[in-house]
């Protein structure tokens, strides 16, 4: 039996983190649903960026939309994304109907530009729901504590249990891991040059959990993760909590565990911040202050830590930086 489809017998629902127009049109999504038991599809701006920019599948639609009237890039993106979501939702509708709404959804994210606007996020979610017009649409708006302007924790679910989070060593018994990351930490670390020799490694001080807000947020996130694992719908899958373990209950003990085992999620940024203050490394054209002919064009120039994963904003920095390099080169001719 197909091992992916066999997961159904264990009460697992497999969702696909990918979407593209040709993938739907060629019947590949339908095949995954029927052959492998895929029960849902997630989408995000980075997925659509790769799909739209990496093929000519959307050229005809873009031309048709522009013939109707001039459109901003964000409007073009939404029109293309909504059409793909609608088509994917239609392919998944039999799953939605068969499972009476338990699965069979396609997700669509609210714009990250509304991350600090609670009312705007709700209004945007309602607008997108009407625009797509499919019962099996899932609008992704993370829940958080009352009164918080925007989500402050991102959760990660892994179908594996690790002996060491740092080494990613799998434990011998099957399990799952719920991990979390603070979206907008206040703590700031440092990176310092130790030698004039380029091969010498720098001195890196992450300085995690250095502020009261970061400590409170992390502990609150750990408690939410426990509530998720303790939910009755997961009861038959959970034998016990390995780490930090049932004996760890106080805020102080949870924080101590986070300090001892926490680590970066490999999305560092902001070590060469952009600006004109004394701590800025590059100016607003990404040129290193005081050194002619040298730029930094990557996530390190971000003056603030983005709330979500940094893949999409890093691509934006790279594209804008490339434009600046070409503009300056033309001026020198």
CATH architecture of the largest domain: Alpha-Beta Barrel
CATH superfamily of the largest domain: Aldolase class I
Tell me the fraction of residues in β-strands, as a range: 5-15%
What is the structural class? Answer: alpha/beta
Number of domains: 3
Which regions are unreliable across 5 or more consecutive residues at pLDDT < 50? none
The CATH topology name of the largest domain reads: TIM Barrel
Helix content: 25-40%
Work out the radius of gyration.
Answer: 23 Å
- Number of beta strands: 10
The span between the termini is 65 Å
**Biggest sheet: strands, sense, closure?**
4 strands, parallel
What pattern of helices and strands is seen along the backbone? Answer: EHHEHHHEHEEEEEEEHHH
> How many helical stretches?
9
CATH class of the largest domain: Alpha Beta
Reading side by side through the largest sheet, how are the strands ordered?
1-2-3-4
Task: Describe the global form.
Answer: globular
Mean pLDDT: 90
Comma- or semicolon-separated keywords:
alpha/beta; 333 residues; 9 helices; TIM Barrel; two-stranded antiparallel ribbon; globular; single chain; 4-stranded parallel β-sheet
Question: Could you outline the blueprint of secondary structure elements for this entry?
Answer:
Blueprint: E1 14-16, H1 21-25, H2 28-36, E2 38-41, H3 45-53, H4 59-68, H5 73-98, E3 105-109, H6 118-132, E4 137-140, E5 153-158, E6 162-164, E7 169-170, E8 177-182, E9 190-192, E10 203-205, H7 212-229, H8 251-261, H9 311-332
Parallel strand pairs: 1-2, 2-3, 3-4
Antiparallel strand pairs: 5-8, 6-7, 9-10
Helix pairs in contact: 7-8
């Amino acid at each position: 039996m197909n091992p992916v489809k066999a997961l159904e017998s264990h009460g697992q629902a497999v969702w696909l983190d990918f979407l593209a127009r040709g993938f739907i049109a060629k019947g590949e999504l339908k095949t995954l649903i029927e052959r492998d038991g895929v029960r849902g599809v997630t989408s995000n701006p980075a997925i659509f960026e790769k799909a739209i920019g990496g093929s000519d599948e959307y050229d005809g639609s873009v031309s048709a939309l522009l013939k109707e009237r001039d459109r901003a890039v964000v409007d073009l993106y939404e029109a293309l994304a909504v059409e793909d979501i609608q088509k994917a939702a239609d392919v998944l509708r039999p799953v939605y109907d068969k499972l009476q709404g338990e699965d069979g959804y396609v997700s669509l994210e609210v714009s990250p530009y509304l991350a600090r606007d609670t009312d705007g996020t709700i209004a945007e979610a309602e607008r997108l729901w009407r625009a797509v017009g499919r019962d099996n649409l899932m609008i992704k708006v993370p829940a958080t504590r009352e009164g918080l302007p925007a989500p402050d924790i991102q959760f990660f679910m892994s179908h594996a249990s690790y002996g060491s989070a740092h080494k990613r060593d799998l434990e011998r018994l099957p399990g799952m891991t719920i991990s979390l990351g603070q979206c907008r930490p206040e703590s700031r670390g440092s990176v310092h040059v130790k030698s004039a020799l380029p091969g010498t490694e720098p001195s890196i001080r992450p300085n995690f959990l250095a502020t009261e807000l970061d400590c409170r947020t992390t502990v609150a996130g750990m408690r939410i993760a426990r509530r998720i694992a303790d939910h009755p719908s997961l009861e038959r899958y959970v034998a016990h909590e390995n780490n930090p373990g049932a004996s760890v209950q106080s805020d102080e003990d949870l924080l101590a565990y986070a300090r001892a085992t926490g680590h970066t999620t490999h999305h560092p940024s902001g070590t060469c911040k952009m600006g004109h203050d004394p701590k800025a490394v590059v100016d607003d054209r990404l040129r290193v202050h005081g050194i002619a002919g040298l730029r930094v064009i990557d996530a390190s120039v971000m003056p603030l830590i983005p709330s979500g994963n940094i893949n999409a904003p890093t691509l934006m920095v790279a594209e804008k930086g490339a434009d600046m390099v070409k503009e300056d080169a033309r001026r020198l001719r």
